[in-house]
Design goal:
Elements: E1 2-11, E2 14-24, E3 29-33, H1 40-47, E4 55-60, E5 63-64, H2 69-73, E6 76-79, H3 91-101, H4 106-119, H5 135-147, E7 153-157, H6 165-180, E8 184-188, H7 192-198, E9 201-206, E10 209-215, H8 216-221, E11 225-231, E12 236-241, H9 244-253, E13 258-264, H10 268-280
Helix pairs in contact: 3-4, 3-5, 5-6
Length: about 280
């Protein structure tokens, strides 16, 4: 459904995309992760047709985005990182505007607003000005603008930044449902547990390109854990190992008497660090 090939984009001396490749199939959720400056938001803006790449190609359901941005946008739903709503207008008015821009009309638009507002717990605030909404309600309204017309491709750029638990749960539930209906979803976040909840695969960006792609368990499997042990005699041991249980058993066989034992599994930061080292090598 979404295929990006060898995307390149520079801003003067800064390279934002340096051969960025990513393919997302219908029904797949891909968690696009990476440190700030890795190229995630630039990639989203290129796919959305907001900026043109210097080189490379983006296809949405067979439509070339740089060449036919209007046709591509009809197939796309975008929730940008920054809130982009009309604050003085009500939630309903914002949704009517964005729905109309996506091609929805009359009864179809009204039905889409009701369905999406129900899914995102916005029914009670539909006629409230956006300026009077909480941060979580604004996040859900922004996501609703991307979901209204049931696009084949969803781009969600940090959709839960600063969101409350209610907002996060509602958004994740809708994203799962849309993927189950066949949408290809690109979900950028710094919060790995969300991607686990979504059952997402990972695409790790670094220095403007994808440096790793696959299931989270597979990408983290080769990283070592850390075994932290406080012994009964007051000593502290830190052991870096891929087999923490075996390392602990070895300490016990050697006569160590643990007071506390903590096993720290590899984290997203560990993955960033390891892949960053490889990409700079």
């Amino acid at each position: 459904m979404l295929v990006a090939t060898n995307l390149r984009k520079t801003y003067g001396p800064v390279t934002a995309l340096a051969g960025f490749d990513l393919a997302v199939a219908s029904g797949e959720i891909v968690g696009l992760i990476g440190h700030n400056g890795a190229g995630k938001t630039t990639f989203v803006e290129v796919v959305a047709g907001l900026i043109r790449p210097d080189a490379g190609r983006v296809m949405l359901d067979g439509v070339d985005v740089p060449r036919e941005p209007r046709r591509a946008r009809a197939r796309l739903g975008l929730a940008p990182q920054e809130i982009a709503l009309y604050l003085s207008a009500s939630v309903r008015q914002n949704l009517r505007l964005f729905g109309a821009l996506a091609g929805l009309r009359r009864r179809g638009l009204t039905a889409a607003i009701e369905e999406t507002a129900t899914a995102l717990d916005l029914v009670d605030v539909l006629d409230r000005p956006v300026a009077l909404l909480s941060g979580g309600q604004r996040r859900r309204t922004q996501a609703a603008t991307a979901l209204l017309h049931r696009p084949g491709v969803l781009l969600l750029d940090e959709p839960t930044v600063g969101a409350d638990p209610t907002t996060r749960a509602a958004l994740l539930a809708v994203v799962r449902a849309r993927a189950a209906d066949g949408a290809a979803v690109v979900y950028t976040t710094h919060y790995l547990p969300e991607l686990a909840d979504l059952g997402a695969s990972l695409a790790v960006a670094s220095s403007g390109r994808i440096v790793a792609r696959g299931p989270a368990e597979e990408l983290l499997a080769d990283l070592p854990s850390r075994l932290a042990v406080e012994l009964d005699d007051g000593r502290h041991l830190d052991v870096v190992t891929r087999e923490p249980a075996e390392a602990l058993a070895g300490l016990l066989r050697d006569g160590a008497v643990p007071r506390t034992v903590d096993i720290h599994r590899p984290s997203l930061d560990d993955l960033y660090h390891r892949l960053g080292e490889r990409s700079c090598a």
